[in-house]
Write a structure and sequence with these properties.
The complex is a heterodimer of chains A (324) and B (300). Chain A has 14 helices and 2 strands. Chain A has 324 residues and is mostly helical. The longest helix of chain B has 37 residues. Classes of the chains: A mainly alpha (324), B mainly alpha (300). At the A-B interface, α4, α5, α11 and α13 of A face α4, α9 and α11 of B.
């Protein structure tokens, strides 16, 4: 694997710092009372981050939009939820099953629409998202329908039960870190360069011998699998599922996380996930009815005024500083 | 007896299919107009239809403005929304790419939907039909008079568009932009103006669709996304960018949906359009009337 040594070192530095910060947060939350109930939100931030990292690879590096990731999230969640509750299977086995099903579905939807130029995937996944929501609502005997599915068992790691918020925090964030590490590795590799070249110009990339549709399908499937993992974790953390957690609105929220953070940076994906999760769990519900409008506005404002997202701000400031 | 009733049942489904299919055709035409000029898919296309229906309800039912006035007024208002969409969301993008334009239309669609919920709430609204609710008996099936209006307006839209694209200099300029925007701007056409025009026209056609379908199927704030998906399925089925394809695709999707809902399962009525979309993408991505060259070589 060809590497870019400088970038690699910087990534490792960032990752180490990030990991230390994550280790420090529970200690801070214990001692600073204002932060104490943010542990719970942080678990959700972690769950959403797993999804946005995958989605960022798809959007920022392969230049494709998916509006169906809430459904892959839902597939993972419901497969884990339904099978562990009704048949008592091992949660980790269900997580793997969810991953397999999501990968299969992603191939079925992605392969035909990604073979074409243009943005057929966005509309195909939009349709997929609506259909999956209908399926979750209609199959009452399996999913509990609109009332939801309750009493989903928790998860345990090597016989050690993950039964508190703090334990789940460590579980979720270690998975986030692994996902980040793997994704950063992919970006720095040959595959990552191929993906970036697709985003730059599909024509030039294919002229250089990059098999465009193959890479796009790989990335789409990988991101769907990540969303499915997030879904399984979500099911075991919340112990309750309802179709509303996986509808089009959630897909749009994921899109906003990526755009807000900056779609060309994996760190942006995490930053965006954190901001929007805090916004929607803590602050935005004061606006209730106007929430949809606010999200629409955020997308427009960012895409018009700050197309690089929030992570592009430090670079911009540095450049302004250098000019003076 | 059983035979006859099944035949009339089939006829009834066909009539319903053609009615909703006409609306999908209008949405598909709207997609095509913008797509041809910008190569972007306008995700707010379904919202234009929703706005057309709800604004018409506001003008005709709430303000009691007679039909002949409220109809054109609604089209004007929705057209202004389309123009604003271009001016406020599409044109200001500093690094324009198809990706960022699509994201902007997704954002705008979400904003419009949120605003509609804010204004009209979550309940569906009804509109009085243009010429009464007395159904016309037709070989054992019934035809709502409004269905005839829907089909009639599709025909009117198609005739107007044909005349516009073939006979006016503006229409020809729009077609030139669709073929090659760079060359068009070299010979002095204002491509930005053409994009604005394409958004205005799509919005107007969407509004017509919304107004004529609301008396049959009611209208609520969150109908847009589903209409957009089905219109897009119609577009792909007919061949992206092809106008005759859009009409054919719309009618076929409408028929499949209504026959599927009637004969197979009504709960999964909305899944049929998606299945058609995926099948077409699998088997013949250029659609029924599009050429393979268009889908492969040009950025279609």
């Amino acid at each position: 694997m060809n590497r870019l040594p400088l970038k690699k070192n910087r990534d490792i530095l960032h990752l180490t710092g990030f990991g230390l910060g994550l280790l420090l947060f529970p200690w801070l939350a214990q001692h600073v009372s204002v932060l104490s109930h943010y542990m719970d939100v942080m678990v959700f931030v972690g769950i959403y981050s797993i999804m946005t990292i995958g989605l960022c690879l798809l959007m920022g590096y392969a230049g494709q939009i998916s509006l169906g990731h809430a459904s892959f999230f839902g597939l993972g969640a419901y497969i884990s939820g339904v099978i562990t509750t009704k048949y008592g299977l091992n949660p980790w086995l269900c997580l793997l099953m969810g991953m397999a099903v999501s990968a299969l579905v992603a191939v079925v939807i992605g392969a035909p629409s990604l073979k074409l130029r243009g943005h057929y995937l966005a509309m195909a996944t939009l349709a997929f998202c609506i259909i999956v929501t209908i399926i979750f609502n209609e199959n009452v005997e399996w999913t509990g329908g609109p009332d939801g599915l309750a009493f989903i068992p928790g998860i345990s790691v090597m016989g050690y039960s993950v039964d508190s918020i703090a334990k789940f925090y460590y579980l979720v964030w270690s998975i986030v870190l692994v996902t980040l590490l793997l994704s950063l590795n992919v970006i720095g590799s040959r595959v990552g360069r191929a993906m970036r070249s697709i985003h730059g110009s599909e024509l030039a990339a294919s002229a250089m011998g990059v098999n465009i549709s193959k890479y796009k399908i790989y990335v789409f499937v990988a991101s769907a699998v990540m969303a499915s993992i997030a879904g399984s974790l979500y099911a075991h953390y919340l112990n309750f599922l309802s179709p509303a957690s996986f509808d089009l609105f959630v897909s749009i929220k994921l899109l906003i996380m990526i755009i807000l953070g900056g779609m060309h940076s994996l760190w942006g994906a995490v930053v965006g996930a954190a901001l929007i999760t805090f916004l929607s769990y803590e602050w935005l519900h004061y606006f209730e009815e106007a929430e949809g409008m606010i999200y629409g506005l955020i997308i427009l404002v960012i895409i018009i005024f700050l197309p690089g997202g929030l992570v592009s701000i430090p670079g911009k400031v540095r450049r302004l500083w250098a000019r003076q | 007896m059983e035979q006859i009733s099944f035949a009339s049942q089939l006829l009834q489904y066909t009539i319903t299919g053609i009615t909703v299919g006409s609306i999908y055709a209008m949405v598909a035409i709207g997609f095509n107009i913008i797509y041809n000029v910008t190569e972007a898919i306008n995700f707010a296309q379904g919202e234009f239809v929703m706005l057309g229906g709800l604004i018409m309800v506001f003008l005709q039912v709430t303000l009691n403005i007679p039909l002949v006035l409220s109809f054109p007024l609604t089209i004007v208002v929705v057209t202004v929304v389309g123009i604003l969409l271009d001016r406020l969301a599409i044109r200001p993008i500093r690094e324009p790419s198809v990706l960022s334009m699509i994201i902007a239309t997704i954002g705008a669609a979400f904003f419009i939907k949120g605003a509609a919920m804010f204004i009209w709430g979550k309940d569906p609204f009804d509109l009085p039909p243009f010429s009464g609710r007395n159904p016309i008996a037709f070989y054992g099936a019934v035809v709502q008079p409004q269905s005839l209006w829907v089909v009639g307006f599709l025909v009117a839209v198609v005739i107007t568009l044909t005349l516009f694209f073939d006979r006016t200099i503006l229409g020809k300029a729009l077609r030139a932009c669709a073929v090659n925007p760079n060359a068009s701007s070299l010979v002095g056409m204002n491509v930005k103006y053409m994009i604005l025009l394409s958004f205005a026209m799509s919005a107007a056609i969407g509004a017509v669709g919304g107004i004529v379908i609301t008396p049959i199927s009611l209208m609520e704030y969150d109908r847009g996304a589903m209409l957009a998906v089905k219109g897009f399925a119609a577009c792909v089925l007919g061949g992206m960018g092809s106008f005759p394809g859009a009409i054919m695709g719309g009618l076929i999707i409408g028929l499949i949906e209504s026959l599927g809902a009637g004969l197979i399962s009504s709960g999964y009525k909305d899944a049929f359009a998606l299945l058609v979309l995926l099948f077409v993408l699998f088997l013949k991505p250029s659609g029924l009337l599009g050429s393979v060259e268009i889908s492969r070589i040009r950025k279609f």
